[in-house]
Amino acid sequence: MKGLTWRAGLTVAIFIAAIVYVVPTFKESVWPHKKINLGLDLQGGMHLALEVQTEKAVEGTVERVRSDLRSLLRNERIRHGELRSAGKTGIGFSLLNFEDMEKLEKLIQNNYPDMELRSTEKNEGNLVVTLGLTDASTVEIRKQAVQQALETIRNRIDQFGVSEPDIRLQGEDRILIQLPGITDTKRAKELIGKTAQLEFKLLDEDHSVGRAVEGDVPPGSQVLYASEQAGGVEKPEAYLVRKETLLTGAYLDDARIQIDQQFNEPYVTIDFDRKGAQIFERITGDNIRKRLAIVLDNKVYSAPVIQEKIPGGTARITGSFTMQEAHDLAIILRAGALPAPVDIIEERTVGPSLGRDSIQKGLFSMIVGGLLVILFMAVYYQVAGMVANFALVLNILLIAAGLAVFQATLTMPGIAGIILTIGMAVDANVIIFERIREERRLGKTPSGAIAAGFERGTITVMDANVTTLIAALVLFQFGTGPVKGFAVTLSLGVLASLFTALFVCRMIFEYMYDVRRMKTLSI
Predict the structure, then answer these.
(1) Quick one: CA dihedral 467, 471, 472, 477, positive or negative?
(2) What is the distance, to the nearest Å, from the Cα of residue 466 to the centroid of all Cα atoms in its chain?
(3) Are 342 and 332 in contact (CB under 8 A)?
(4) What is the pTM of this model?
(5) What domains, with CATH codes, occur in the chain?
(6) Mean pLDDT by groups of 10 residues along the chain of 523 residues
């Protein structure tokens, strides 16, 4: 009786805990716990497949090296010609003094371990040098670009507030994204796909913007246009901007929304880290009375005149923002820039009505399957079948509670896993019941037949369920979204089946025939 008492107490405690976790799914205001998350196929939402342009990451790295090398050569007083691109991964330039070659090799070795000297060639009294990224560095840059893009997109989506997003790599350069419950798909795509490369550049005020727009662009400058927020959609204002980037968003520490008290319009305040603040203070101090363009993804958001040196490392991005646009801009700036542009190569949207239809059909099939199993067990195994049916209901409740506890996502394949579990749950009872029948035919008492049936049937039940659990765990580890959804509910179902069949059912039988001393075994 002592053994039955603690087992009954444990079963009741688990039953109550399961109800506590399941109730919020149907009555969200009753308990403070989270409800079961529905997948994209049940809740509706958005599916995206992105391809990271890793070649752009390599080109961007080479461009940064070229810009940095230009300053370093000047500081080291190494006379050279113009630095130019040599293919996608190389930099070419001329050394005006042959004796500087040894100096250049040491400089490259100490400052650019990812670069190698590809060739040297004499040409008209100069030495033409070609540098390039090593093959190992190129592969690593591409790999890091995809990993960084994945983390950046995940940070943006987390700040966007999507519940249970599914974000994972596919192959070498693709990212799969599922956003359940998303209705504003356009906003989501803009938030995910924006590169968010923030740059600060001086305007070229020595040359004509009009002539540059017509095609006469002076060396070292480029024509950029105002963003939609800053310059309007129909005819954005053109700016002549120097190519040299004085400061980037890599030094950004925070971005937040503020409200302009004078015009009652939102703007974004950005704060730099310690090093970025020092660079910003130096830039503003050296360029007083000049215009500094704030450029995001090659679009000029504003180009204010620097009135004085600005200490503290704080700047603002202004424009005709709505509150939502300012909020999204702050999100992508906080999450960081993508290391390379991404292309949306696949897009699917599941409407909420289609998701509700899937839920209804899935629940209907689960109810029909469950009722048929319950009817069969009640007719064929009589009282013992009713005990198995009680365990089956508890089994389904435990699966639902497990989904809520672990915040797993329920998908349509997951519902299929629950339906499969309904059959597997009573399968364990069938094995034990048949063993009990054999023991009764050998002349054992009801209590003895039950004890022998559970003892001998347990090994078979454990073998079958443990092998199924191993297969489910392998599916979860290596499967994609739909397969994982199936594996989750199958794993929870197997564990719940073992508990209800071997623990709960045995406890009920022992109470009926050891405590209550029932004489007839209805099985």
Answers:
(1) positive
(2) 31
(3) no
(4) 0.65
(5) 2-44+351-515 (1.20.1640.10), 45-149+161-177 (3.30.980), 194-336 (3.30.1360.200)
(6) 79 90 75 71 83 89 84 85 85 86 86 87 82 91 91 85 78 87 81 86 92 89 82 72 88 87 84 89 92 90 88 82 84 83 86 70 83 89 89 91 84 85 84 89 86 88 89 84 82 91 89 79 78
